[in-house]
Specification:
Structural class: alpha+beta
Number of helices: 4
Oligomer: single chain
Shape: globular
Largest sheet: 5 strands, mixed
């Protein structure tokens, strides 16, 4: 479990960036789902480069703090980020990808999954 207080500044900054990116992310998620690439799109948020996924938003081009890479649960399993014996748990916790974006946030010295709704309530 992430110590949210320790990462509060980073998470607030990520949340602000995600508000800007959400529509672009939603379009990519819909493509992944509609083309049956995966039922589980995952978006990697990082301040650095990622060797996983495909870059869809370059922070440098937008003068922001976080880049976004599109990936899937299948890649996370292949790279052993999500272990096969934890797949059922992951799937149970995974939220509807048409309503929520699944973000794997690479923080300063930790990482974790965050689900955030596309539409603010």
């Amino acid at each position: 479990m992430l110590n949210l207080e320790k990462y509060k500044e980073e998470l607030v900054e990520l949340e602000q960036n995600l508000k800007i990116y959400k529509e672009s992310i939603r379009e990519i998620a819909e493509e992944i789902l509609n083309h049956k690439v995966s039922k589980y799109p995952i978006f990697i948020a990082t301040r650095e480069h990622s060797t996983m996924g495909k870059m869809i938003i370059d922070k440098e081009e937008l003068a922001l703090e976080w880049s976004i890479f599109a990936s899937t649960l299948e890649e996370f399993v292949a790279r052993k980020v999500v272990l096969e014996d934890k797949l059922d748990d992951f799937r149970k916790n995974y939220k509807n990808p048409e309503s929520f974006v699944c973000v794997f946030a690479l923080l300063t010295d930790n990482a974790g999954f965050i689900f955030t709704p596309y539409d603010e309530e």
